[in-house]
Write a structure and sequence with these properties.
about 160 residues, alpha+beta, two-stranded antiparallel ribbon
């Protein structure tokens, strides 16, 4: 049985091949641009959270004067700090409700060391403060198509910010 000549000609015809390659390349290029916007939003949110954590830590550490009220005064000083989170789940203010303060007697030798051995509740021994920010979710606006196609979820910034 012989394949009809029209099907054979169609299989060998190369007209329009570049259009397919160009279309796929354009889709990939636009996808990379969209991904760069979304990753920029994640980076800005991380910067916003880090800035707030730094400000709250400086305010709280300023109250650690070895007095009997130091641990009571430090959270009050940190609560005065208010900042704006730009992208993670919309624009909203950051406040002390987003933070957890931990008081330390000294600093660990490096960032990989667990700080639990340095934690104190004695206001006269508190020398340093660690500020942890609650995890925030950043919606990938342009990545919605990628989420739908690949079954990906939102990016969560869950690394403790200090």
């Amino acid at each position: 049985m012989q394949i009809p000549s029209a099907i054979t000609r169609f299989a060998k015809d190369e007209d329009g091949t570049f259009l397919v390659i160009w279309g796929i390349g354009l889709a990939v290029f636009l996808g990379l641009i969209a991904l760069s916007f979304d990753l920029g939003r994640v980076g800005i949110t991380q910067t916003d959270l880090q800035s707030y954590a730094d400000s709250a830590a400086l305010a709280a550490a300023g109250e650690l004067d070895r007095s009997s009220t130091a641990i009571v005064n430090a959270p009050n000083a940190a609560a005065v700090i208010v900042d704006l989170q730009t992208f993670g789940r919309g624009d909203r203010g950051l406040s002390s409700a987003d933070t957890t303060l931990t008081f330390l007697t000294s600093l660990p030798p490096n960032d990989a060391t667990d700080t639990s051995g340095f934690v104190t509740t004695d206001p006269t021994q508190a020398r340093f403060v660690r500020v942890d920010i609650a995890a925030h979710t950043v919606g990938l606006t342009f990545g919605a198509a990628f989420r739908a196609l690949l079954g990906l979820s939102l990016i969560h910034i869950s690394e403790p910010t200090r």
